[in-house]
Amino acid sequence: MNLEKLESVLSQEPKFRLKQARQAIFIDLINNWNQATNFPLALREKLNQECGLEIGAENLISREGDATKALISLRDGLKIETVLLEHGAWRNTVCLSSQVGCPFGCLFCATGKMGFQRNLTDAEIVEQAIYFARVLKREDKQINNVVFMGMGEPLLNYENVMDAIKILNDKNGLNIGARHISISTIGVVSGIKKLASQPLQINLAISLHAPSNDLREKIIPANKKYSLDAIVEELNNYLQQTGRRIMIEYLMIDKFNDDKEQAEELALLLRRIDPPLYFVNLIAYNLTGEFKSSSAKTIKDFKLALNKQGIEVTERYRFGQDIKAACG
Ligand code: SAH
Ligand code: SF4
Q1: Long-range contacts, 160-167 (Cβ 8 Å, 24+)
Q2: What is the helix (H) or strand (E) element at residue 193, kind and residue range?
Q3: Ligand 2 centre from 168 Cα, in Å?
Q4: 143 vs 301: CA distance, rounded Å
Q5: What is the pLDDT of residues 170-225, one digit of tens each?
Q6: Does ligand 1 come within 6 angstroms of the Cβ of 184?
Q7: Ligand nearest 288 Cα, by number?
Q8: Which ligand is nearest to the CA of 208?
Q9: Of the residues 153, 156, 207, 280, which should be mutated to test ligand 1's pocket, given the most ligand atoms within 8 Å of the CB?
């Protein structure tokens, strides 16, 4: 898809054409300008040549049919992953990538192992959502939630991610409510600060994954720069400014961060979050080589240990593991 020249191609046309074109792209979700039947034929041809709408992608569907991973080809030949998770008929979540690869190299993360290629443009981020919005529209469905939990660190690509979110949120765009859009970060403190003062009510999730700096550094090299202390301090500013509840993501890795003492250590750390507007989301680790996932029993015990300390805990449902679509 290539919308860069849309405004210039339409600049010689009457003003309403741009509005009609946006309606065709974001609401009618056309994939070829020939479907814009309210446009003169010559204009449709010109638009097809200069502002193509096709999205090159390969689909992988999980055995249960609840997750679809699309491998989207960008114009420079690089590929990114986008995942659609269907929880029942009316909750469709799209997991978007923000970068090609990721510079942080977390040891448990498949993206981290790829190294970093480049940031995605706002158009490339929106294109991922449009891809699945088209798929869903065929079944009279739509995207209800967007999470930035695909490839890359969204807060290292702040401007483009926020520009994309504005389009996703726009009533004349995909019209996805800000409260249904979430950014997940490894803890980029400067980005959390910026998020706190921007006006849209989007959600924030923090990939914490360990209760102490010593342990966290072993799997997250970026902890040297973004320590737990720096993150907690910035979260407190964020919470005081926004009053919006955050999600603490915690990957359950076998015999690494999953015993009862560690749950208690985590509870102590979380007690420093003030105001205490958070809940913990336990994530079953998807195999990427190095580690093993905690057993269901260990996850349950960990959850109970946190509950005992008065902490609300949810568990991330495993989607599409067979297509490696369950994030990371
Ligand atoms: N860079 C951001 C967002 C992308 S990762 C971040 O790290 O938060 C999105 C989520 O998937 C993060 O919580 C990340 O820790 C998690 N993840 C990474 N690798 C995973 C794996 N192998 N199994 C399960 N979750 C994983
Ligand atoms: Fe990057 Fe997030 Fe993966 Fe770490 S977990 S390497 S920050 S995408």
Answers
A1: 160/98, 160/119, 160/120, 160/121, 160/122, 160/125, 161/98, 161/122, 161/125, 162/198, 163/122, 164/96, 164/122, 164/123, 164/125, 164/126, 165/200, 165/202, 166/200, 167/26, 167/122, 167/126
A2: helix 189-197
A3: 23
A4: 34
A5: 999 899 999 999 999 999 999 999 999 999 999 999 999 999 999 999 999 999 99
A6: yes
A7: 1
A8: 1
A9: 207
Q: Which two tokens stand for residue 309?
A: 């300390």
Break the chain into its structural domains and give their ranges.
Answer: 6-50, 57-323
Active site (catalytic) residues: 81, 327
What is the CATH code for 57-323?
A: 3.20.20.70
Alpha carbons 25 and 99: distance in angstroms, whole number: 23
Record the tokens describing residue 162, joined without a space. Answer: 């926020």
Q: What is the identity of the amino acid at 96?
A: L
Tens of pLDDT along 249-275? 999 999 999 999 999 999 999 999 999
